[in-house]
Amino acid sequence: MDDVKAKLSEALKAAMVAKDTARRDVIRLMQSAVKQIEVDERKTLTNEDVLTILQKEVKKRRESAEEARKANRVDIAEGEEAEIAIIEQFLPQQLSRAEIEVLVRDAIAQTGATSAKEMGKVMGVLMPKTKGVADGKLVNEVVRSLLSS
């Protein structure tokens, strides 16, 4: 896997040269989030750790955009969504709903789950396969819909 921190640095340089202030600022925020954890935990983060941090940042922004839309603050929501688009460029390609459904059906067959009460078993099998490449909320939604049908 490529070095995500190096990619962030290269992208920062490119954004500065292109005078793309929005992109530059988002990348700096991501770098500072990574640096903060490295300083707090006194360790150098692996690529997987950095990707986890970036995914948390995307999740925060998604929730913030959702709240902004509920409050009719489209301007704030669009700003958050623009930041998400920038951050996602450093994350692995996310699975589509159809790809997630295939994994969920396999996990249901594997665990023999038949009702929503057994959702925990299915999620236990699924999470290692979807970690980092699918939104947990979407996976949860697909599992719920397939177990209830």
What can you tell me about this protein's structure?
This protein has 149 residues and is an all-alpha fold. Helix content is 77%, strand content 0%. It contains 7 helices and no strands. Helix 5 (97-111) crosses helix 6 (119-130) and helix 6 (119-130) runs antiparallel to helix 7. It is globular. The N and C termini lie far apart (38 Å). The mean pLDDT is 88.
**Classification by helices and strands:** mainly alpha
How would you spell out the order of helices and strands? Answer: HHHHHHH
Shape: globular
In whole angstroms, how far apart are the ends? Answer: 38 Å
Q: Extract low-pLDDT stretches.
A: none
- Number of extended strands: 0
Individual helix count: 7
Largest beta-sheet characterization: none
Task: Name a few traits of the molecule.
single chain, 149 residues, mainly alpha, 7 helices, globular
In short:
With 149 residues, the protein is mostly helical.
Describe the secondary structure blueprint for this structure:
Elements: H1 4-17, H2 21-41, H3 47-70, H4 74-88, H5 97-111, H6 119-130, H7 136-148
Helix pairs in contact: 1-2, 3-4, 5-6, 5-7, 6-7
